[in-house]
Queue: 3 jobs
Job 1
Amino acid sequence: MSWMSPSYHLLQWPENPISRYKVYLYREQGWDTEHFVAGHPVIFIPGNAGSYQQVRSIASSAARQYHGEPGGRAHGMEAQKKLDLFTLDLNEDFSAFHARTLKDQATFIQHSIIRVLGEYDHLALNQRPTQVTLLAHSMGGISARLAVKREDVSSKVDMVLTMSTPHTIPPLTFQLEMEAIYQQIAKSTGPLLISVCGGVSDSEIVSDSCALSSTTITEEDGFSVFTSNIPGVWTGVDHQAMVWCHQVRWLVARVLLSMTKQEERSRKLAVARRWLIGSDQKFNPSSGIAQRIAVTSSNMTILIQSQTERVTELSIQHCNEECHNLTSKTELIPFPKDPNAPFPLPGEGIKAGEVVIAADVTLHQVDGFLAFNSKAQAVVDVGSHLDKVILGSDWSE
């Protein structure tokens, strides 16, 4: 479960193109103490019959990760911008059942992007954001993709991140107009597109419809990932829980925060891949020595348990007469506290203490020792790195 202290501030909009829809700015009470926006704008788009208040779990996590403490600034967040979470009140309309409603929402999103960017007019011209990020749940992802089909709108959006969105098959197929919308967005162009899927635990949409095929998007333009394969989540997530499941909302907030310091499209995509897929995670070392580890082979793996939810930096050095910094390739792996209990527990996710970081290092000489430096992590185990291959029912190394 996740906890938050939400507040919503209605944006005044005399020229609102669709009067039944509204835009709110989210603020975490006691944490967001600023009276103006100066960060990176993110617009949350709810799905079919969804509420604008569904943004609260992710927005609260983003605020708390950024500040560290009420009104403060967390360590490691100095280079990142704050997230300004805006959320759309779409009147809880049934967008999955009515293509015209879906089009109205796409139109409102287009106007909302311009309206939200106008909130930053008080800043100097070179400090104003020129793009927003769209964060969408369920059918909100289809509305968002339809909205950015307009070229002048597409240039104002850096990424569309969807959660439990049926990208390839509409939930109901009795409207030709809905089919036409899906054909219109069949090929993704413009902003980065990332799809997070709940898998078989999501009983409201066809699981495969959430995945982005190679005909929809290229590797340079985005990807899709199932929560059961996200490091530190490793479990299916149902349709509604996608926006409040703690492990997922923490990661989504961290992805958005980490992207704020990246200007290039490729770097933003690399950040998303690192957090959501775990590929090519490399941490550069810092100074200092806390623990010594005997070198036993040229390829070693160190299992490290973090006292915080995620590791941001590791320092590993190879020492003999002198110490040399090593860059480790790391990944998260399960580490249940009770080896006799099911993992994960049925209907539950992975807790922070049930994850360890596996850091692989390659050495040119088998001598001396490894020096591991960190105050927030502890070494659980260390040894030679072995690759095991399963051939039928037989194991081989």
Note: The domain at 6-276 is CATH 3.40.50.1820 (Rossmann fold).
Job 2
Amino acid sequence: MRTFRHLLGAAGAGLLAPVPALAAAGSAAAAGPDTRMGLFWLLLSTLGLVLLVFVLLIVALVVALRPQLRRLYALPTVHDSWSGQVLGLLVGDPRLVTGQDRDVQLDHDYDGITEYDNDLPPWWKYGFYCTILFAIGYLGYYHVAGTGQLQTAEYKTEMRQASLLLAATPDDPSQLTTYAALTAPADLAAGKALFATNCAPCHGTSAEGKVGPNLTDPYWLHGGEINHVYKTIKYGVASKGMVAWKGKLAGKQILQVASYIQSLQGSNPANAKEPQGEKEAPAVARR
């Protein structure tokens, strides 16, 4: 008991120790909004310290009173009651959680195999009851009241939120540009030079198609309208092996290449690769 009194005194001192800190935090809060987060963490740590001291106090109390609790638990009127089983957890008897095997055999056997007639462990039954309550709450919240979003609705909401965040950036791959094709000879010449340097290894010197598709026919994998061609060049198509030229070519250079590609429509180069994708009329070509 002397040890318990020492523990109790130490716990009381621990509870009183945060008081000056709280007073200092209160004066700091009046200094301005910059101290609010510091005050929050101080209060949170103080609360955690108080809870820790409280738990240690309870543990010390149980340890100090364990002999008296064991004698109380041994009483016949207490031992088999529900409150007695709770008390048993404190003195080392886990019957309330694990249950108690009766070791009573059933009156049948099969090829010499018999089984005991034991109840399910309480922890399993309580867990099963919790799942039933959870299922009822889930059904009422999502399907009866319609308060919560189901998976499909939640997915659509998250996609809308993501599109809003993405649209807020200046370089949004989901938004098409509104450029018109360049027709000036200087721009087409620049686009031809860029195509020969960067695009010909995959699409051929005349855009007839090699590893990449033929760019001179009306068939398009990702659309043939100028802004769709611009988008494909800029962001690439990783699944098709088309690299992204963003960061390697300037915006005007990408538009020059896209305009040059459009100028090759119907040129019918030799050894043209077979058509790929969907056919689009040149006047309404869309990606």
Note: The two ends are 84 Å apart (CA to CA).
Job 3
Amino acid sequence: MSAQETADPNAVSEPPADRPRVAIVTGGSRGIGRETVRRLAADHFAVLVGYAGNRELAEAAVKDVTAAGGRAIAVQADVADEQQISELFATAEAEFGGVDVVVHAAGRLHLAPIAELDLAELDALHRTNIRGTFVVAQQAARKIRSGGAFVTFSTSVVGLALPGYGAYSAGKGAVEALTLILARELRGRDITVNAVAPGPTATDLFLEGKDEQTIARLAAQPPLERLGSPTDIAEVVAFLASPAGHWVNGQVIRANGGII
């Protein structure tokens, strides 16, 4: 009997031992994205830190990784620009030899009642959150190697339906739909596709513009009675990016401390 005939058909593809695993993290200069960069680097990924505009923060994220003995580079790109994202993926391949995991953490938040929302804000929000996710997903689907993972970001607000989040939640609902469909379109490729949907998480993006009473009320929502931290969410992403999480596919994981 040949080696091919005795191979386990359910075995997860593993890269050769001498080939480093490579991750791209968009929105990797701050918040959940930055903590995800640190966490994946701790798991011995070489990491490309994608960022929109703040080069100083992106370079600081790279410095954190390299100071700990890891490998990382920063690349500026507008996630909604297909040419820039194509070049970002090409840079990862040129610098590190390929792409195994893509974490699309870049996003935009604007809150307003539906009746009062400036439609220019709606267009900007959806350009980043819907078109940006679609553009990154296209390249991820084309470039991720067998055994890899693609992780998008939604929000638990899709289920909670909080006032003021109409435009943001609508965009994230689109992200969830795209994620689940892509998981099925990649049948036979041994690539997982999942969305992480955080609840209230103590990032600059979340905390901006909120008073102490609002923050305290949101922190009391989950049974664990606190805000999530970027580390909480990065741990979920790291699990999905690891061999241990490879049987989880086509799911939306609501990482929110138990908010119903």
Note: The first strand starts at residue 22 and ends at 26.
